[in-house]
Amino acid sequence: MLKIYGRANSINVRKVLWAADEIGIPFEQEDDWGRGFKPLTNPAFLAINALALIPVIDDDGFILSESNTIARYLAAKHGRTDLLPADPRGRAEVERWMDWQVSDLSDRARGAVMSIIFKAPLPGGEEVIRASLQTWPEAIGMIEAQLTRTGGYIAGANFTLADVAIGLSVNRWMATPFEGKPEFPAVAAYYERLSERPAYLAHGRNGKP
Questions:
Q1: What's the first-to-final CA gap in the chain, in angstroms?
Q2: Is the whole-model pTM more than 0.85?
Q3: Over the chain, what is the mean pLDDT?
Q4: Which band of pLDDT confidence, cut at 50, 70 and 90, is reported for residue 178?
Q5: 171 vs 181: CA distance, rounded Å
């Protein structure tokens, strides 16, 4: 059986949990690894993943880390071309949104989320938080524009792995209060659309930012 390592309140671990649930893969989770739990520098964890990162999976002895890579691997292995298209252009469209989410979008959100939600001190202090509060809404505005174009999901009319990545970031946006927060109607409608999926309610809109 697929084994997934990583704390269940990690946005990247939840990405893998949601993808596995969406595909319908039975899995076991060891959720006591990561910040606030057992350290990833523990020799027992390093024996599983020398990169000392979560999430990581053990799929019948195949060890793999990096949330987007894991999600793509699982979809490809189980023939879910609805989630990850087989044609190069369709797949690239899905992958670009996944990769943008884990890099630029997450970077823009980090200062605000860490200070407002997790109350964590940040290198750079208030300047980093102010920059995040300015640039994060700009990124959500890009999602708003894309959803307005597609009228459905982030990579087109149908749900894909791109929505697993973007949907978790949208949940984080919706869960983070701050003064002057702009409203994005297409994003709000998308949030409700995703909430019709049981796997999103289990691993995305589940009370965790």
A1: 28
A2: yes
A3: 96
A4: very high
A5: 15
